Every structure is written in C-alpha cells, then in structure tokens.
C-alpha cells in the first residue's frame, strides 16, 4: 500500500460534517450529513501513467471531497476488451465522502478532464480513467451511473488492487467480499505489481 490513513468501513459512518455536542442546541430540521464509503478504480495507459494516477488521487483528496484516503499499490495490467494498445497501470483508492454518488461521478469526470483525458472508443487508450466501484451499500442504475460497477467482479485488474485496501468490504449486490470475488474471478489476464 502506498499511503494509509484511518481505515474506512462500509457499515460504520466515518464522520459527521457538523459535530453535535450536548451543549449545542440542534433543530430537528437541521440536516446532518454522514459520510459514505467510496471505492474507486483508477487506470492509465497513455502519457506518464504513474503521474496520471497519483495526480488523480491528489486531486480527489485536495479539497476534502474524498477524505481518509487509502491507496493500493500500482499494478501493471494487460488490456481487456481491446488488446492492440499499451498495458495499463491500475490502482484502487477508497475513502469517505459527503457527496452523493452522482456528485462523486461528476467530480471524477472533472479530474479526468483536468488531467487531459480525450474522448475515444470504449475500452481504448486513456490518459486516466476513474470508475466508482462501490458507494456504501447503494445499488443504483440509471443512464449516468451503475453502482456497484457492473463488471468489477469479472475484472482481475480491478479486484487485485481493490482487495489490497478493501478485501473484507461486501459487494452489496452479490453479498460477497472483494477478496471472495477476487478468488472466484474468471479473468485470466495478466496483473502484476508495478516495478519502476
């Protein structure tokens, strides 16, 4: 693991944005925001892959929108879906956020744009790719976002890094831990620890 802060659990609220003390009167109408655990997958196979991923992680935590960040090690991974492209560098990051799932998605897209991601065909080269894998225990699917990520359980390049930082976290749709999903993953593509 490259950096480790306080571990985050899916089932335990991490922090409350507005602390409440016995001496502070609180209205029942005052919303209290509880942070949600978020697990993200990052990948890059263009430009300075390592710098792209580390820049994305720094931007995710820069203004507190993702806190208590834990970052996996970096993994060199064989392309999946379209083989005629450079190998990827992949990592996983988890943390706590007070954003909604859709707000987090928009934040991730802003970061991708800031790092210089260009529009290309599906599964082709990317300067940076940030996918939301899990968002607390939420299960949702609409035109913008599907959580849990619909193919995470089929992809070793996603599960390997994720298991390093969130092995015991449950996939809410499959009721299996990340570690269990990795052990059952049918994907045989190469995933190896990155060595500079």
Itemize the secondary structure elements and their pairings.
Elements: E1 36-44, H1 49-62, E2 67-71, E3 75-77, E4 88-97, H2 101-115, E5 129-135, E6 140-141, E7 146-147, H3 156-166, E8 170-171, E9 176-177, H4 178-184, E10 191-193
Antiparallel strand pairs: 1-4, 1-5, 2-4, 3-4, 3-10, 6-7, 8-9
Q: What's this entry about, in short?
A:
This protein has a single domain, classed as 7,8-Dihydro-6-hydroxymethylpterin-pyrophosphokinase HPPK (Alpha-Beta Plaits, 2-Layer Sandwich), CATH 3.30.70. Helices cover 24% and strands 23% of the residues.
3D architecture notes:
The protein is of the alpha+beta class. The protein has a single domain, classed as 2-Layer Sandwich (Alpha-Beta Plaits), CATH 3.30.70. 24% of the residues lie in helices and 23% in strands. The strands form 3 sheets. Strands 1, 2, 3, 4, 5 and 10 form a 6-stranded antiparallel beta sheet that branches. A two-stranded antiparallel ribbon has the order 6-7. A two-stranded antiparallel ribbon has the order 8-9. Strand 6 and strand 7 form a beta hairpin. The radius of gyration is 17 Å and the shape is globular.
């Amino acid at each position: 693991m490259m950096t480790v802060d306080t571990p985050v659990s899916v089932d335990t609220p991490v922090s409350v944005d507005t602390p409440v003390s016995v001496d502070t009167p609180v209205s029942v109408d005052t919303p209290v925001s509880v942070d949600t655990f978020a697990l993200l997958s990052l990948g890059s196979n263009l430009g300075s892959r390592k710098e792209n991923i580390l820049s994305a992680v720094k931007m995710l935590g820069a203004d507190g929108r993702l806190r208590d960040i834990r970052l996996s090690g970096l993994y060199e991974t064989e392309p999946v879906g379209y083989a005629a492209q450079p190998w990827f560098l992949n990592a996983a990051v988890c943390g706590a956020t007070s954003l909604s799932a859709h707000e987090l998605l928009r934040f991730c897209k802003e970061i991708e744009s800031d790092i210089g991601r260009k529009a290309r065909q599906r599964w082709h080269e990317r300067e940076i790719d940030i996918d939301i894998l899990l968002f607390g225990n939420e299960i949702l699917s609409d035109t913008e976002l599907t959580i849990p990520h619909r193919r995470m359980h089929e992809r070793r390049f996603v599960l390997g890094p994720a298991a390093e930082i969130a092995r015991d976290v449950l996939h809410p749709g499959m009721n299996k831990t990340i570690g269990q999903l990795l052990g059952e993953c049918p994907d045989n593509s190469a995933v190896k620890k990155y060595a500079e």
